[in-house]
Design goal:
By secondary structure, the protein is of the alpha+beta class. The chain has 2 helices and 2 strands, in the order αββα.
Length: 105
């Protein structure tokens, strides 16, 4: 997030920069803590990750910027253990699905 940049603008910019995908931000899903500890266990940094629910507009995902990989996957793959994912990705995806089920189209 850039200084002074609103949350939804940051989310859409980061998504476009990292994957090439254009999307419309709808709402915040949740916020997660991510802690970076040194080998001795001392906290170096504390990140707060804000998951934003977006509706896809255009483009096929392509890894760019600092994304290692970008592609569409089946939702079940987020929780079946077949992918190496960051902590809580499956739970956040489940929240997004539940929100979209109740979201107006």
């Amino acid at each position: 997030m850039h200084q002074g940049e609103p949350l939804f603008e940051a989310a859409t910019r980061e998504l476009a920069e990292e994957t090439g995908v254009a999307a419309e931000p709808l709402r915040v899903i949740t916020a997660l803590d991510a802690f970076d500890h040194d080998p001795a266990g001392v906290l170096r940094r504390h990140f707060i990750l804000i998951a934003v629910l977006c509706r896809w507009i255009a483009e096929v995902p392509v890894a760019a910027d600092d994304a290692l990989e970008a592609r569409w996957i089946d939702l079940a793959a987020l929780t079946d253990g077949s992918l190496a994912l960051s902590r809580d990705v499956g739970a956040v995806a489940d929240q997004a699905v539940a929100l979209m089920a109740g979201a107006p189209t």
